[in-house]
């Protein structure tokens, strides 16, 4: 074959490839500016890379009492931000395992077999893909699913009625990430990276800024519209009793070095329901000082001195009734007697990674990790 014919063949191959890429892009991608077009091409190439089986990212504590490495099928290692178990069965399913979702720095992942195998997931319209960061997954009132997404330099919250197969955008902010959010029967509260707290009315479909702080909100929990807890990245535990219009900082933690540096907190969903809630509000906090708890809405706190090692950082916590899970780097402290005694669990994750997400089912604990 002569050089001229070689050139024609190569030109035809590249032309066919570009036509395939254009047809594979969203309908409006080629109409946007060159930067968006290039990003779409790169994103498409990323998604076309053949996934490989990666272990050591997610681990599952099963019925037998052992941790097993789960398999993540993707082209690269991912960091896990959140894991949630769907309260509803997959569409058309009469039984079997519920869907489990994991938010990561490369989009949303799903497991259909109790967390042992994970694959990349996107909605029917491909609104979210591997170029999206999924910071939080939340199943709120009426079992609706919600996602906090950062994509295209925008912070977005999507709502779904069908396990994220279809998505409805309900909030969007340019150049701002939504660090955390929570939902009551009437409102959605969102803590933004620009140091503000906003409320979105589910009924009126409108939002407004409630409060501004001197640091971004790191964690947020709306027990009711009249009782909101939050923490800041710079430190401190705050409570609002007027629907987020004003917040009181709990001063007690300032007396102990590192105690007001809160990485995570959990409000006991069992103990804080009537009639128990009339007596106390039980809150657990994972701090630089250690694992602490409050029984009086955050006014006073006590440290768990029963942990195997005193004064160590705790990064995540789950507390429900008398069962507590507390994370220290690559291990989990588990108690079934309200912290009187502890068992140490060692998830099967890579040595260079730390635990970043926990989800608890009826018979399993699912652990996600990050670098």
TrEMBL record:
InterPro entries, sorted: Sialidase_sf (IPR036278), WD40/YVTN_repeat-like_dom_sf (IPR015943), Xyloglucanase_GH74 (IPR052025)
Protein's GO biological process: xyloglucan metabolic process
Protein name: Photosynthesis system II assembly factor Ycf48/Hcf136-like domain-containing protein
Biological source species: Candidatus Wolfebacteria bacterium CG03_land_8_20_14_0_80_40_12
């Amino acid at each position: 074959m002569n050089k001229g014919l070689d050139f024609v063949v190569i030109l035809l191959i590249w032309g066919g490839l570009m036509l395939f890429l254009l047809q594979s892009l969203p309908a409006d991608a080629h109409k946007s500016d060159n930067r968006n077009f290039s990003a779409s091409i790169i994103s498409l190439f990323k998604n076309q890379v053949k996934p490989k089986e990666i272990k050591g990212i997610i681990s599952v504590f099963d019925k037998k009492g052992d941790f097993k490495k789960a398999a993540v099928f993707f082209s690269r290692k991912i960091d896990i931000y959140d894991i949630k178990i769907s309260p509803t069965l997959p569409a058309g399913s009469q039984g079997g395992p519920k869907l489990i979702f994991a938010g990561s720095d490369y989009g949303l992942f799903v497991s259909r077999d109790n967390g042992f195998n994970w694959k990349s997931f996107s909605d029917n319209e491909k609104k979210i893909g591997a170029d999206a960061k999924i910071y939080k997954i939340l199943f709120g009132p009426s079992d609706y699913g919600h996602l906090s997404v950062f994509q295209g330099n925008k912070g977005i919250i999507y709502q779904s009625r069908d396990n994220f197969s279809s998505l409805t955008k309900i909030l969007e902010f340019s150049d701002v990430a939504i660090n955390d959010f929570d939902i009551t029967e009437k409102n959605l509260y969102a803590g933004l990276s620009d140091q503000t707290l906003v409320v979105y009315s589910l009924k009126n479909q409108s939002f407004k800024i409630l409060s501004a702080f001197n640091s971004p909100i790191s964690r947020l929990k709306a027990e009711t519209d009249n009782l909101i807890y939050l923490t800041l990245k710079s430190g401190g535990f705050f409570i609002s009793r007027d629907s987020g219009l004003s917040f009181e900082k709990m001063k007690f933690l300032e007396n102990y070095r590192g105690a007001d540096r809160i990485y995570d907190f959990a409000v006991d969903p069992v103990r804080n329901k009537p009639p128990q809630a009339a007596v106390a509000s039980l809150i657990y906090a994972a701090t630089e000082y250690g694992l602490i708890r409050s029984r009086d809405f955050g006014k006073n706190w006590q440290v768990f001195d029963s942990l195997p090692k005193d004064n160590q950082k705790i990064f995540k916590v789950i507390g429900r009734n008398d069962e507590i899970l507390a994370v220290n780097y690559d291990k989990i402290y588990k108690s079934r007697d309200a912290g009187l005694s502890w068992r140490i669990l060692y998830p099967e994750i890579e040595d260079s990674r730390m635990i970043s997400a926990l989800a608890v089912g009826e018979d399993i604990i699912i652990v996600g990790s990050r670098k």
